[in-house]
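Table S2 (text version). Query chain:
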Amino acid sequence: MFNKITNWLETHRLEIAIALLLAALLFLSALPMMLISIDSGYKGVLWRRFFGGTEMERSYGEGTTLIFPWDKMTIYDTRQQRETVVFNTISKNGLSVLVEASIRFRPLENYLPELHRYIGPDYINILLIPEMGSHVRNVIGQYEPEELYSVKRTLIEEQIQQSIKNGLGTSNTNESAGHYIFVDEILIRDITLPETVRNSIEQKEQSKQVALAYEFRLLAEEKEKLRKKIEAEGIRDFQSTITDGISQKYLTWQGINATVELAKSNNSKVVVIGSGKSGLPIILGSDYTAGPADKADKSDKADANKQ
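Corresponding structure-token output:
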């Protein structure tokens, strides 16, 4: 028996060598399809051609995996991803509004086989964006264009976030994005209104600012009026005090103090003593500041001269 096998191998040696060479070439050509490398942050879902299709029990982690060449491994990015989308929405009064939103999300690793079977690798365009657009449209539809153009953008983002959270949290069916995808946040990057509406809102805001400027100016004028009134009352009270409360003796006393202070000064000075009875400096000792007695003496001298 052994001799027969040996003789057969010797007889068909060339055919066997060719067959082994072809098998080696076939293996080498199929090797890239058999060795699957999965990078960090990715996971794979295996589809078996002859053993039931998509493997639903598990997904394949990072590293190198060997599969049959007729099977297929689909790689999914399981890290945080960001997608920027422009949604065409309708405002409360029926005007078209373009909303540019940025969505941050990641697929849920435990549900990758189901995502692959029921949705596929294009799940972002098939499932995520349409469902996010539905929440954005529901929130935008509650506002007038003027409100969208104002500072309510933060409030709109919070409402969209809450709408998505409520929607994904209560939707556990295979048709919902919440069953396969975790949405971390959605940010409103830009809200574009029709040009005519935007111009109208800008003109309205400019008119409002002009009105506020006039109102501020009127308020300032009212305050200036009150200030001038208080200033006038103060001047009037001061003049009344000067007229009624300052006596000749007080003025004489102040003049004496001024003369003493001038005498004490170390600076070079000339003190001019008045010729009046008070003996004060010429300003305070002049006839202008003379008391009633001085004025009476001058009047008597004038009468004597006339006689």
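Notes on Table S2: The beta strands are 35-38, 42-48, 53-54, 63-66, 72-77, 81-90, 96-107, 181-192. The radius of gyration is 51 Å.
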